[in-house]
Specification:
homodimer, 267 residues, Arc Repressor Mutant, subunit A, Rossmann fold, 8-stranded mixed beta sheet, 9 helices, globular
């Protein structure tokens, strides 16, 4: 049963025919079915996600990694608390988050939160901007069992013909470029953009422009942190895990779980 | 039992006191012990890693993610086969690997292979060079339950004081720079360097120089692919998953699992 759980979780969203398990595990189909029923209840009980059975010729069983909303709220609150600690606020109003984003167990929980929130969007790829957002984007991609595509800042593409777009970074107020190799995204693909920090939304807007060139759709934007100001962002419909509201009178960051997190429901 | 497995695998190498499980799972210690014994056998049987019990005051149980050597060889052979396909060989003798490295399930299996090979080195951090090696480095870090530290190419560090070293890239024959924020690595830390491609070893040599500045130790170098030529690399004791030997007469890449992979033993 452990092994069934392992195979299901190794490939989220992939529909395993029952016969596949029977042959790799050397067990009767009836035993597999009983084990799956028990797994379904266990996963549900502990908020580990769903085990779904699909009927028909293309049927089988698949694992959908939805985390329990209350658990996501706990993760968000723990992260907010760590970001409120002294020394996190950097010159220029930036927040030091690299150590958290670079810890695999944290990146994994953040990725699972995004995968839960965006479960209905069914992305084909997860987009990341180099460099800091890559770990949380990869863990989101892992939860959807889809590839990650890393957008490069211009002048660094080494893999043949590329598409380049300009964007205005609200933080630096300069025109910059982002680029992707032509072979990186196919027409009609559904892309979920995941990044670590959203202020004005200039970068995210650039990602929409870039995907338009590929005739691909941005089906969602997920941010680790979004600032409260400016309230009007250049993109709409952004899910952020945390909200960064400025500094308190001791010079520490004010960070809270976002309203989006409070609104996640079990679905 | 599924939940026990989940908690163990979420934090490899972390020693869970038995009481912790008893309280979070609401079960008696004797039940937990029986379940752990069953888990140990199951993990062993399916080559999922080891469940180890540590006695004493700081004792408890931990999960060590060692994959079965025969399974690692299968993964390496599958990847080599995909890299031998037409269209992979790029101008300049490069190999198109981005799509594989960017697929989370592949990055995960590669990371587990590195974690198995380097299990005895006990790294405190996993080092990656931006950008392409990040997914496999992150998955290696995940298997060791340690943070990843991403080395930036110079001129791109935005997080305060940094240490910069020069290195000679054997591929481009130019002097380049790599940099890390001072706060990224602490004195005495054990660093495992993971990257996607090794030709002459100039970059890896630079990583050794960089860690010397931090008074940290490089305890291992793991590469997704190493070229056969030049045979003499600038660094010794490199583990590579695949060996890239040039082009065949149809212009496809010649790629095989490395001799290192054949030499992995169950340990």
């Amino acid at each position: 049963m452990i092994c069934l759980a392992d195979q299901l979780r190794a490939k989220p969203y992939y529909v395993h025919p029952l016969g596949e398990f029977a042959s790799t595990l050397g067990a009767a189909k009836s035993t597999i079915s009983e084990d799956l029923a028990a797994l379904r209840l266990t996963f549900e009980h502990f908020g580990l996600g769903r085990v779904e059975t699909l009927a028909g010729a293309a049927g089988g069983v698949r694992y959908v990694p939805r985390r329990d909303p209350s658990r996501i709220r706990v993760v968000a609150e723990e992260l907010a608390e760590r970001l409120r600690a002294p020394g996190r606020l950097l010159p220029g109003g930036f927040l030091y988050t690299t150590d958290l984003l670079s810890t695999p167990s944290i990146a994994e929980r953040v990725g699972e939160a995004f995968a839960t929130y965006f479960a209905d969007r069914r992305p084909d790829i997860v987009l990341a901007m180099e460099v800091k957002g890559i770990p949380i984007a990869l863990m989101t991609a892992r939860a959807f069992n889809v590839p990650i595509v890393v957008i490069r800042r211009a002048g660094r593409v080494t893999e043949g013909p590329a598409v380049t777009v300009n964007y205005v970074s609200a933080s630096s107020r300069t025109v910059q470029q982002m680029a992707l190799p032509l072979r990186a995204v196919r027409e009609g693909q559904r892309a979920l953009f995941i990044d670590d920090f959203l202020r004005g939304g200039g970068t995210a807007r650039g990602v929409f422009d870039l995907m338009r060139e590929f005739r691909a759709d941005v089906v969602g934007v997920g941010m680790f942190i979004a600032t409260r100001e400016p309230e009007r962002k250049l993109v709409e419909d952004v899910f952020s895990l945390l909200r960064f509201e400025g500094a308190d009178d001791r010079g520490n960051a004010i960070v809270r779980p976002s309203e989006d997190v409070a609104a996640i429901h079990a679905g």
